[in-house]
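stage 2 :: seqdesign
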């Protein structure tokens, strides 16, 4: 082999090695930034259009998508999600149909955590173990059961909720049992858009931090970029439900734009 050729091959190999190292360093930085950034969770009702809406939400900057499985008596929900639940049920969105939506959403979003959110009565009727197995098979990363106390069904690993009214004992138990992050219900009452951040959120975050270093995501009442930014200064992530459901009724483009505004607010 000629010396010039050997030199060229060596230089090319050295260049490729340098490029590979640079890519690895860049990928590492980006992964670190993603890990540190405030998480954005978007709630959508499970309906036939939901997979495409979920894709739009992630394109706008959502990190996690909650899929609401509609229930006939959603006690924790405000008027927007109640109407969406009634609409979904009128369209035949029962448990099997919602699981199909989950599976189709997973096909579009293979890397995004998808979290079914519903009520215990649905799992009572379907079977807790059966529901968990079927949902996991279709792509569920975890579950949220709004009305199931932490001490019930402990074998079902799920994201726990705590509220301003929760006792210290319940907060400690929820933090120990939760799956990945703890959902902070920032208000006393039902879901729905609010004009200002709940004054109950800062002390709730402090109480949870006193017991655990588990990540905490604040939800209920967060409806604007300004509120998302304010909640993000306190919590590790924010959950947006009612306003996301309202915006989703206008289609994927509107939802993508709205979620993008939330993501921009969390990063400023």
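stage 2 :: out
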């Amino acid at each position: 082999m000629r010396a010039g050729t050997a030199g060229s091959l060596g230089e090319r190999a050295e260049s490729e090695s340098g490029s590979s190292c640079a890519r690895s360093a860049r990928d590492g930085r980006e992964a670190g930034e993603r890990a540190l950034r405030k998480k954005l969770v978007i709630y959508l009702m499970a309906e036939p259009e939901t997979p495409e809406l979920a894709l739009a939400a992630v394109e706008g900057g959502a990190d996690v998508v909650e899929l609401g499985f509609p229930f006939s008596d959603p006690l924790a929900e405000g008027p927007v999600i109640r109407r969406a639940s009634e609409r979904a049920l009128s369209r035949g969105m029962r448990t099997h149909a919602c699981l199909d939506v989950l599976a189709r959403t997973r096909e579009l979003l293979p890397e995004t955590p998808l979290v079914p959110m519903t009520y215990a009565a649905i799992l009572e009727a379907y079977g807790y173990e059966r529901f968990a197995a079927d949902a996991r098979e279709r792509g569920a990363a975890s579950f949220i059961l709004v009305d199931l106390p932490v001490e019930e069904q402990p074998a079902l690993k799920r994201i726990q909720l705590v509220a301003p009214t929760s006792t210290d004992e319940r907060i400690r138990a929820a933090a120990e049992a939760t799956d990945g992050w703890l959902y902070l219900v920032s208000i006393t009452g039902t879901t729905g858009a609010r004009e200002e951040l709940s004054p109950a959120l800062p002390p709730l975050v402090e109480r949870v931090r006193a017991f655990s270093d588990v990540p905490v995501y604040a939800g209920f009442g967060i409806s604007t970029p300004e509120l998302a930014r304010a909640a993000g200064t306190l919590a590790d992530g924010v959950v947006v439900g009612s306003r996301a459901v309202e915006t989703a009724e206008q289609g994927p483009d509107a939802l993508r734009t709205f979620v993008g505004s939330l993501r921009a607010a969390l990063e400023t």
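stage 3 :: structure notes
- Residues 27-34 have pLDDT under 50 and may be disordered.
- The first strand starts at residue 39 and ends at 45.
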